[in-house]
Amino acid sequence: MSRVPLTDEETRVIFAGEAAENFGALEGSEQRDVLNRLVNILESDVIPSSLVYEWIGNLDIYTVGDQIRLYTKVVDEIPQGNSEYHVIYLFYIDDDHDYENKTLATYSPRAEAKAERVTSLRTISDVEEYLEEQNALDADDLRDMR
Fold it and tell me: Taking the domains of the chain in order of start, what are their residue ranges?
């Protein structure tokens, strides 16, 4: 049975900060778990911010199993007034649920800056160009990484 989305909006993820390096350091099964969680978020029928586990400063935290935490910034419904996309900036992958204050302090201002930048985009073509420049990934791209 094929999935029928409730909205036409697409969600993309951008590996920012140390996320790509953190991802590469995970064991294979942990990488698959992270990818599966991201695919589930991207394909959900609800906006990505509604699936956030907790908020710390400007960061939105997703869980992957009991241990892994994804430090992100979620921006729903862009461009404003003509919503086509949701964007998740993945800054850091914490594989031992440690919540280091240094990491939170580093990424909280970056999260705010990314949100300000993407919400300033006014047209769908501006958003699409930005997503292309940032190498934003959709669910199919993530599946290809498994």
Answer: 10-141
| Tens digits of residue pLDDT in 23-53 | 999 999 999 999 999 999 999 999 999 999 9
Q: Tell me, what's the pLDDT at 99?
A: 64
Taking 50 as the pLDDT cut, the residues of the chain under it are 1-6
What CATH class is the domain 10-141? alpha beta
The DSSP 8-state label assigned to residue 1 in this structure reads: -
For residues 122 and 110, the answer to whether their CB atoms sit within 8 Å is: no
Tell me the Cα Rg of the chain. Answer: 15
Judged by DSSP in three states, 116 sits in: helix
Task: State the Cα–Cα distance between residues 90 and 22, nearest whole angstrom.
Answer: 11
Can you read off the two tokens belonging to residue 53?
């586990």
